[in-house]
């Protein structure tokens, strides 16, 4: 039930207070409500689940067929295993199917709604309504304290008291949606370690020199391999007027350290030198740019070939081919930075899992306190993994709060 904002003076009681009506908070509220707990969800925004609505280009990539712990980053890579194995992608797919929501698989096991992300949000809202969960919108939590009577939560709309408190406030990416780092900072103030956090699954910005060279390429997408010291990834990248985007640029941003060079292989399916050796025998009169253009978008071929573009394959000397080979296979891109929280899909880092139970998401420092979803130091790859973490961790806490 969505209720109007609270009158300021009244104090309300609940068994369970969930702060944040995003993916994790709604899931947790549903499960706790099914157990007969009196649950209230407090949400600062004017609507619940804004990130769900915005996700997957409006079609919500709600999970992935292949959910493995390797698809998640955390200082403790084992932490996510318990929750993910007890509430799996198949459990969520069953729920979606029970609600008659049509979905389809895109590349790499990613599951999307056929129609709209609204289907997922409406499903969760119907589920919490069916078990009597109260949802308070436009209610921002400002302070929380532990008293004899339980957790006392102050908001700009009044005070709530509850036995169990669930922090499901996510991370600060896309502040215009109402996202904050409040839960991370409050958790730290309660003695939980805060693992340094930053915007991730985010496009790169380029320095002016790169941007000038890339200007004619804006809007071009092509397969490439991006490498940083910790990882490489092959798939589509997109030149933008500000830098580099596309799924692979976003994926590698999870592993990139600020200041690090990203090496790009624009021709990931073969060795340019070997192919040039055989091509110069058979098509030696062809210009370099035409030859590169057989495998690469024409504008990219032009840019990579540069001054050499109009030379015939047979006329290129060894030094020129070596230089070209480095540019094509190991292009050194030094990002100026990233687009930051303005466009980032997630926050990498967050509250350390060290003092959290991987089975229940309960704080080991304070009884009756739980942290779920993105507020924790668990971040998924692009592809439905971050929602799966929200569903699984929400379920884990919902079973015990
Ligand atoms: P979430 O951010 O969803 O919810 C937190 C809630 O807490 C918010 O509603 C916020 O307003 C509220 N809140 C914060 N502070 C508060 C306070 N002090 N008082 C009260 N309320 C407060 N993932 C994926 O798997 N597939 C996808 O397709 C996408 N696509 C995508 C697109 C875009 C544009 C973004 C930004 C993100 C994605 N994601 C995604 C990531 C995914 O949306 C994200 O990981 C989950 O929504 C995290 O769920 P949580 O419930 O933890 O936080």
TrEMBL record:
Keywords: FAD, Flavoprotein. The keyword Flavoprotein applies. Residues 198-346 form the RsdA/BaiN/AoA(So)-like insert domain. Residues 15-399 form the RsdA/BaiN/AoA(So)-like Rossmann fold-like domain. The keyword Flavoprotein applies. This is NAD(P)/FAD-dependent oxidoreductase. Its cofactor is FAD. It holds the Pfam family HI0933_like_1st.
């Amino acid at each position: 039930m969505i209720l109007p904002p609270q009158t300021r003076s009244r104090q309300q009681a609940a068994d369970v207070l969930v702060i944040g009506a995003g993916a994790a908070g709604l899931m947790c509220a549903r499960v706790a409500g099914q157990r007969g707990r009196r649950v209230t969800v407090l949400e600062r925004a004017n609507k619940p689940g804004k990130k769900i609505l915005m996700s997957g280009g409006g079609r919500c990539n709600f999970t992935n067929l292949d959910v493995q712990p390797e698809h998640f980053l955390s200082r403790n890579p084992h932490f996510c295993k318990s929750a993910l194995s007890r509430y799996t992608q198949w459990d969520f797919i069953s729920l979606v199917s029970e609600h008659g929501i049509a979905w389809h698989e895109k590349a790499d096991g990613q599951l999307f709604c056929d129609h709209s992300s609204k289907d997922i949000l409406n499903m969760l809202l119907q589920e919490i309504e069916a078990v009597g969960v109260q949802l308070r919108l436009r209610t921002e939590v400002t302070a929380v304290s532990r008293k004899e009577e339980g957790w006392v939560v102050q908001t700009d709309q009044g005070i709530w008291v509850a036995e169990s408190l669930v922090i499901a406030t996510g991370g600060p990416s896309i502040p215009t949606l109402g996202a904050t780092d409040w839960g991370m900072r409050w958790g730290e103030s309660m003695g939980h370690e805060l693992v340094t956090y930053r915007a991730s699954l985010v496009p790169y910005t380029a320095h002016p020199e790169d941007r000038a060279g890339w200007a004619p390429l804006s809007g071009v997408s092509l397969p490439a391999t991006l490498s940083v010291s910790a990882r490489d990834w092959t798939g589509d990248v997109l030149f933008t007027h500000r830098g580099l985007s596309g799924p692979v640029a976003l994926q590698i941003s999870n592993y990139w350290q600020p200041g690090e060079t990203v090496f790009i292989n624009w021709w990931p399916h073969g060795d340019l030198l070997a192919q040039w050796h055989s091509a110069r025998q058979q098509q030696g009169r062809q210009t370099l740019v035409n030859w590169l253009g057989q495998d690469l978008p024409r504008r990219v071929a032009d840019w990579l070939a540069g001054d050499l573009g109009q030379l015939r394959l047979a006329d290129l000397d060894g030094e020129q081919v070596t230089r070209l080979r480095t540019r094509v296979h190991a292009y050194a891109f030094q990002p100026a930075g990233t687009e930051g929280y303005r466009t980032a899909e997630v926050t990498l880092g967050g509250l350390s899992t060290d003092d959290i139970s991987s089975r229940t998401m309960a704080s080991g420092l304070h009884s009756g306190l739980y942290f779920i979803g993105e507020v924790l130091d668990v971040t998924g790859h692009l592809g439905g993994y971050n929602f799966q973490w929200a569903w699984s961790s929400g379920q884990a806490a919902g079973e015990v709060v």
